[in-house]
Structures are given as structure tokens and as C-alpha cells.
């Protein structure tokens, strides 16, 4: 579905130069559309409005900044919460499965009893704690390094939505587990790296930063995440 033709000033962004735009295209009726041209770079504001969603997804997987700007600024996607919960469920399932594999009891009755326990929900809680700590570390770093970029509550909310959307790579955990093979640990490591790259690109596009600062924020987020986990472990929690 194409976005609205007209919007308030600055509602859209040019996917090439990140400049503000009032419209993505102009509708001349009878199916005749003309893509708007950016006043800053003289290129189409958003060429992706003519692309198939599959092409847009492929460009997003390739972590192209233009695709991220299209998704974050020029579309009305509102699946952040559902995507976050589903990704956490995928991660919790993977951890629960590894915990189940670590128990060397193969009694079917015992496995059924094991499945009814609360280990899966505990894994979900741990995954939620780690992701929350990771995001808090990122926000603290960015607020400290670029306070002018996060002045309003809406800035924090928009960045949070961008980070939640950029964790879509965790959905790959399920097929990696289903099609288990000797290279599964390597695949899981690649998925982790891909998610971090996506997070970096989301931060860069949302705040219009260079490549270094987003990676610095992610690095601090990982440190904060591991620090919180170690703290709870020292308190006696089974994290």
C-alpha cells in the first residue's frame, strides 16, 4: 500500500541524503503517479515506493541505509511490540532446547514432565532481561555522546522502535535449530553478528550518525548487558 501523498513538513525523509520532504509522490489521478524529487540531492525521495516488498526486504537484509530509511521514516509499520515478543520467544526456545539437550535423561515420561516445568518461561525472562540491559546501555551511551539527538521523549521512543525492528534477525534462530547440523554453533554466531550489524544500521539511520558512534554504543550495550547478568549471578539468581 502506497503512503499518503501529502504530509506535514518533515514527515518523510529522502532515502539518499536523509533530507526532509513533504511528499513521496504526487497523484495525478487515473493511476498516474510522479515520484517526488529531493530538493537537496536532486534524486527521487523514495524509489522504494515502486518496489516489491520482497526487494525491499532483500535490501534491508543487506543492511542498505536507503532501505532502512524507507522502512523507518516513510512507512507506517506498527509491529514493533509483536516482533519483539516473537524474537524473544525464539531466543527463549533456543535456550530451553539447549538446556533440555544438556540433560542426558532420555526417558519419554521425564521429557514430558520437563516440558511442563517453568524453564521455558525462565529462559524468556532471561532473554528479556538481557535485551533490556543491552538497549539501556545503548541509550545511556548515545545520550551521553549526543545529547542533542535525544532531547525529547519521542526521540527515545522512535529509536527504541528502530532497535526493535532491527532485531528481526533473531527469527533465523528457529530454522537454524530445526535444520540442525554440525555447523549450528557457527550459524548462531553469524546470526548474533547480523543482529548487531542491523542494530548499528538502525542507530545510524535514525540519528543520522557516522559509522563509529553506533558501534561504540553497541559495544557499551554489550558490556552493560554482561555486567547486569554477572550482577544477578552474584546475587544467587540462576541466570
UniProtKB/TrEMBL annotation:
Pfam families: Arv1. It is found in: Endoplasmic reticulum membrane. Its main location: endoplasmic reticulum. The keyword Magnesium does not apply. One of its GO terms (biological process) is regulation of plasma membrane sterol distribution. It is a multi-pass membrane protein. One of its GO terms (cellular component) is Golgi apparatus. Keywords: Endoplasmic reticulum, Lipid metabolism, Lipid transport, Membrane, Transmembrane, Transmembrane helix, Transport. The chain crosses the membrane at residues 123-144, 156-179, 212-232. Mediator of sterol homeostasis involved in sterol uptake, trafficking and distribution into membranes. Belongs to the ARV1 family. This is Protein ARV. It comes from Oriolus oriolus.
